[in-house]
Amino acid sequence: MDDPTNIDGTYPFAGLTRYNDGDLPERVLDHGSSVRWWASETFGTEQPIERDLPDEGLNTMINSLPRAAEATAGWKHPVTGDWIETGKHNAIIEPSVAEQIEGRTGTKEQVEGFGGDPDETVYGDRALFNIPTDDYSIINPATFLRPLTEVLRDEGLDDAVFGEFRVSRGGGRVSADVFFDGKHVEAPGMDEDRKPIVVGLQLDWDFFGGTALRMRGMGMDWECVNSIRQITEGKTIKHAGDVNERVEWVQMYEDLLEELDLKTDQLSRVIHEASEETLDLSDFPDGFADDYDSVLEAFYAYAGLPDYLAEVAADNARANAEDPFNPDWWTLHRGATYAISHEARGEVGTGAAIDQYNRRANDLLMNPAGVADDVEAAYEEAHEETTLAEEGGGQVTMDTAFESVRDKRDRYEDREEEIHSLIEG
User: Fold this and answer.
1) pTM score of the predicted model
2) Which of 5, 42, 219, 341 has its CA 20 to 30 A from that of 76?
3) Rounded distance, CA 200 to CA 58, Å?
4) How far apart are CA 306 and CA 7, in angstroms?
5) Other C-beta atoms within 10 Å of 310: how many?
6) Is 21 left (phi over 0), alpha (psi -120 to 50) or beta?
7) Kind and range of the H or E element at 70?
8) Cα–Cα distance between 222 and 298 in angstroms, integer?
9) How far apart are the first and last CA of the chain?
């Protein structure tokens, strides 16, 4: 981030201070290390050695992240052309970008108007994030990331932390994945030489709207490089009031890490159960896939994925299932997460459609009975003129396809209660 006007991009980090200024833990070279597979995926190396890891640690990366500052806002008088200051609003700017502004550089159009090159000129809009009301409170990254580093050091995770920051919109929006090597999901039945499933935190913030910071637990399956997002309930800190007075950052992170540990244990059980439960594609009614290339693609589409993702998910699940005509629900979930992780259009953490797709993918793992209801309802809605009953026993056939997961509906409802008890407890 040497050039403050060109800061959009992805910035990886490892350790709090790059593995304590160069000391690479021996376990990082182990097959079961998440850092090893992350380095392999990120930097294209088979073995992560010191020079293949990023130069920045989490602690040092904080200093480079874009931040915001207040500036006086005003409005231009329509008759006199004078600029009038206002106390009702404040301009929220990126200070390091603002320092690069010289001369008459208000907007891109104004730069072009007096013969300047907007691609080479730092004009005002490049520094401006927002002009909110005067009760808007800036929450800069150091405010909430420094307490995180304190907690990680106290928890002995200073050498285990790694991940990346994804910066967009001129530094006004950032999404971060913060993983912890060793915090892995160990489900019964997993092969010993399987690449790990690591868990961590997803943090999203921006300087544009009313929400400053959103954080929740997430995971990454290195076997297929799939993100498993939204595995804990989200926490939201708003741009309002004295944030440091109303938020106890250290306690919040301690609680979130404890919740993540509990959820990791639960996720292990869920994956094991999902691996034992299969979906017989031959049980779907005739005509179920008339609008799609396969029954599996139709299943994903009726489950709530858009057609372009349903196609990718079906291809992935079919390729990885032991029996492509009778896939288990863990494979179905992985197909959905693969499609979302690698092909979904949109940005993670913005509250856009991609977040809804991640919730659908998690339902495949956490609540197959609920997915069954949604698939059936979506199929019936799409074929209102020709009902399942008119197709000669279609309703019975659909029920047969989902019979096993519906028989276990009570278990899924108990799981939902368990999830909420972890969150609320």
Assistant:
1) 0.84
2) 5
3) 14
4) 32
5) 25
6) left
7) strand 69-76
8) 27
9) 41
